[in-house]
UniProtKB/TrEMBL annotation:
GO CC annotation: cytosol
Group of enzyme by EC: isomerase
Gene3D superfamilies in alphabetical order: 3.30.70.260, 3.40.50.1360
The protein's name: Ribose-5-phosphate isomerase A
Pathway: Carbohydrate degradation; pentose phosphate pathway; D-ribose 5-phosphate from D-ribulose 5-phosphate (non-oxidative stage): step 1/1
Pfam families reported for this sequence: Rib_5-P_isom_A (PF06026)
InterPro entries linked to this entry: NagB/RpiA_transferase-like (IPR037171), Ribose5P_isomerase_typA_subgr (IPR020672), Ribose5P_isomerase_type_A (IPR004788)
Keywords: Isomerase
Lineage: Bacteria, Bacillati, Bacillota, Bacilli, Bacillales
Similarity remark: Belongs to the ribose 5-phosphate isomerase family.
SUPFAM superfamilies referenced in this protein's UniProt entry, alphabetically: D-ribose-5-phosphate isomerase (RpiA), lid domain (SSF75445), NagB/RpiA/CoA transferase-like (SSF100950)
Assembly and interaction partners: Homodimer.
Originating organism: Gemella morbillorum
List of residues binding substrate: 25-28, 80-83, 93-96, 120
GO process annotations (BP): D-ribose metabolic process; pentose-phosphate shunt, non-oxidative branch
Amino acid sequence: MNLKEVVGKEAVNYVKDGMIVGLGTGSTVFYFVHALAEKVKEGLNIEMVSTSIQTVELAKSLGLVIKELEEIDHIDLAVDGVDEIDKNFNAIKGGGAALFREKIVADIAEKIIWIFDESKDVEKLGNFNLPVEILPFGYSHTIRKMEKLGLNPVLRLKDGKTLVTDNHNYIVDLHLGYGFNIDEVKNKLADIVGVVEHGLFLNMCDLCISGTPNGAIVIENSNKK
Ligand code: 5RP
């Protein structure tokens, strides 16, 4: 079994009858959604919302019903992947361009579980470039401002064209380098008009499930903000 599948299956054990569950996005969540669909077929009774059109389509293909955020008043549990996570439970997300919806769902969720294979587990963030969602209106100026602030932005392309998110925005990947100053970058981004949201998810999870060759390792975050 691959490590993403190991953690995807493990996370399903935390989903209980009656919960409203936020489904993340990506190749690790893919296995979680598959395992969840099996449980639902066996009788697990839950409601679900999604962080991306990609996950909605996956869920629907497996017979799951996905609600709109406006149809629910809370989320009990969100399960999502990460691109990198450090020892303080600070993560970079957005490799799959879904960071905005992922952050909204994470912000609403009472409990958050991040699932990943052990390669995502890092001492310090920064080998993975930090995704930032920006508005298309005036985007070249937004990018210029980022350049002036030393954030090394690169507009993300897909098939040679500017990638457009589920929210009809663009993604810029900041090449910050290993061990960048998280607070400094966060503060700089807060000052740039045109930034919709960034992929820094700082100390937001309650539980991490890391996939290792010896199985899933569950790590609790007792210092969650
Ligand atoms: C999408 C994300 C994903 O959670 C992140 O990219 C991890 O994906 P994967 O499980 O495919 O490695 O943030 O925007």
